[in-house]
Amino acid sequence: KTSIGGISTARIADLRESEAAIFRRARPKSAAKVGNGLPGFFGGVPMHWMNDWPTPFPILVDSAKGATIADIDGNRLDDFCLGDTGSMFGHSPPPVARAIRRQAGRGLTYMLPSEDALAIGPLLQQRFGLPYWQIATTATDANRFALRVARAITGREKILVFNGCYHGSVDETMVRLVDGRPANRLGLAGEFRDLTQATKIVEFNDLPALEAALRDRDVACVITEPVLTNSCMVLPDPGFHDTLRGLTRAAGTLLLIDETHTISTGPGGYTKTYGLEPDLFVLGKPIAGGVPASVWGMSEDTAMRYAAYNSCKEPGYSGMGTTLSANPLQFAAMRATLEEVMTDENYVRMDHLARRLDAGLTAVIDRCRLPWHVARVGARVEFICAPGPLRNGGEAEAAHAPELEATIHVALVNRGVLIAPFHNMMLISPATRAAQVNRLITAFGAVAARLAA
Ligand code: PMP
User: Is the rRNA-binding keyword given for this protein (predicted)?
Assistant: First the structure.
């Protein structure tokens, strides 16, 4: 390949090298401490994916507040990554920080509810419209538990995912279409099973394929994000969600909507904004303002069926390995997030700035005549280094341009802006200021001009 995303590979390589040098020069202290990895950690990092950031070494964070993050060398970045959604309501939102301080001296985990839990149940019911809830600690956890319920009550083993999906380390979702055929996703460590035995996969927006896959009535559950956000962003075609719901109901298949990223749409997620009717609902990451927590909800019918299932089955537990879940720190932080941070007013501001960002980036792309586009779901914006809109995971994978994206990422860091590392995702938080959005548009303009020149 001599060009990627309309840019010559030689130019990308040049810029990557010069930006890496600039990154290093600005971080002498960090280079001394982590330039050769963090001592004591396998691979030099406490989580393996920290090595996948495109910067020459990880940014060693000193502190973060609102939508700004500072490293130990005193570089301040406008943060649009926001912990890849964990901090999408800003770093240490004041109400959450206060709640954590309040709870800090009252015990951190007891395997018993606190009074905040009394408030949380009704808050979740009102906000998301499902009547029955459980608490977990990560979105991965919540998805696993919800899928288990779907299998239990349908008595079916199989699930269905859309190509390009991501739902955390839920093993059975790690399937891809390769040349139109289901296969284990490449690169899975220690996965010896053929995951395609229990997982069907079709392209997003491909309703005939979905209908055919559900026809045998052997699928317990379709699990999906309302918008695919974990490949390059893919929006649903008009009517897609209605038909998805109709087809799943007709096939006796449950529908699990994973709102972990699309909570950017509005205070009740994409589900509330667009009137989706999931049987199972999952939200992780930012629900407790950055304290590890997730929630999963069941519709009335799902809950009744699960209760009936439980009353007939052998006694025993299926929620093991959850000792730290539903702890009082989670409840305190979640209550503050739901009551004081995920407010209508905050979402109005977030949406307003996200539109401005969308328009600003689009204008840059047009001005530089790049074959790129911008996609957005509420406060989540992404530029994609390929023409769009994308219609499915296959197209999204083809649009992904890792080398080019990595170069842009580091170039933006050097211009004072942090975006998500493995794709070009940017989040607007309630703490994000218009000036920060303007700086991002300017920085993106400068980088795009360098590439397009
Ligand atoms: N679901 C979705 C839609 C996600 O985007 C992610 C993380 N990117 C997860 C689940 C997994 O979240 P966690 O890593 O907190 O388990």
Answer: no
251 and 388, same domain (yes or no): no
Instruction: Give me the pLDDT at residue 453, please.
Output: 86
Which protein residue has the closest C-alpha to ligand 1 atom 1?
167
Confidence at residue 129, expressed as pLDDT on a 0 to 100 scale: 97
ipTM: 0.99
129 φψ region: left (φ > 0), alpha (ψ -120 to 50), beta (else):
left
Same domain, 38 and 123: no
Q: Best substitution site from 285, 296, 427 to test ligand 1's pocket, by max atoms within 8 Å of Cβ?
A: 285
pLDDT tens for residues 261-291?
999 999 999 999 999 999 999 999 999 999 9
Note the pLDDT tens digit of each residue in 345-355.
Answer: 999 999 999 99
Ligand 1 close to Cβ of residue 259 (< 6 A): no
Q: For ligand 1, say whether the CB of 258 is within 6 Å of any of its atoms.
A: yes
Ligand 1 pocket test target in 48, 145, 223, 230 with most atoms within 8 Å of CB: 230
> Is there a contact between 224 and 170 (Cβ–Cβ < 8 Å)?
no
Please tell me the pTM assigned to this model.
Answer: 0.98
**Rounded CA separation 118/105 (Å):** 20
Nearest CA to 377 among 393, 389, 395?
389
Q: What Rg do the C-alpha atoms of the chain give, in angstroms? A: 22
In this structure, the answer to whether residues 316 and 260 fall within a common structural domain is yes
Protein residue whose Cα sits closest to atom 9 of ligand 1: 168
Does the beta carbon of 299 lie inside 6 Å of ligand 1? Answer: no
**Residue 285 Cβ < 6 Å to ligand 1:** yes
Indicate the residue among 326, 341, 356 that finishes a domain: 341
By residue range, what is the domain housing residue 301? Answer: 94-341
pLDDT-derived band at 204, boundaries 50, 70, 90: very high
Query: What's the whole-number mean pLDDT along residues 92-115?
Result: 98
d(CA 402, CA 116): 44
426 CA to centre of own chain: 11
